[in-house]
Amino acid sequence: ALVLTTGHGQTASVATPERAVTLNCAPTASGTHPAAADACAELRGVKGDLDALTPRNDVFCTRQYDPVVVTVAGVWQGKRVSYEHTFANECVKNSYGMTVFAF
Fold first, then answer.
1. Cis-peptide, bond into residue 34, ω within 30° of zero
2. Phi (first) and psi of residue 84, to 5 degrees
């Protein structure tokens, strides 16, 4: 079970969370994530390593700097997860992987 948040700012400590979703992948995909089944499949594909999600080649984003921070906290396959990453803007955030950060 994971809780994913997103907000504008340099770090989670200064960003106000604007959106939060839950994602449960066992025994079946569920939660408030808009594409839970796809997000779970994507996470399984990278063995739960959020740093392994890379930007897609078919997405082109502007160079506008409007930082968006994503946090993920919870448990993935029995291991505690605590992840934070700041993306240059919303488009860049959404380009990483296919669905995990698209909420």
1. no
2. -145, 130
- Which amino acid would we find at residue 5? T
Would you put residue 17 in left (φ > 0), alpha (ψ -120 to 50) or beta? beta
DSSP 8-state class, residue 14: T
Residue 24 bridge partners (DSSP)? 30
Encode pLDDT of 80-95 as tens digits: 999 999 999 999 999 9
> Exposed, middle or buried, 52 (CB in 10 Å: 0-12/13-18/19+)?
exposed
Tell me the whole-structure pTM to 2 decimals: 0.89
The answer to whether the beta carbons of residues 91 and 22 sit under 8 Å apart is no
- Token output for 86: 């700041």
Q: Which residues pair with 58 in a beta bridge?
A: none
89 and 62 Cβ atoms separated by less than 8 Å: yes
How many angstroms separate the CA atoms of 51 and 41, rounded? 16
Measured in whole angstroms, how far is the alpha carbon of residue 80 from the centre of its chain? 16
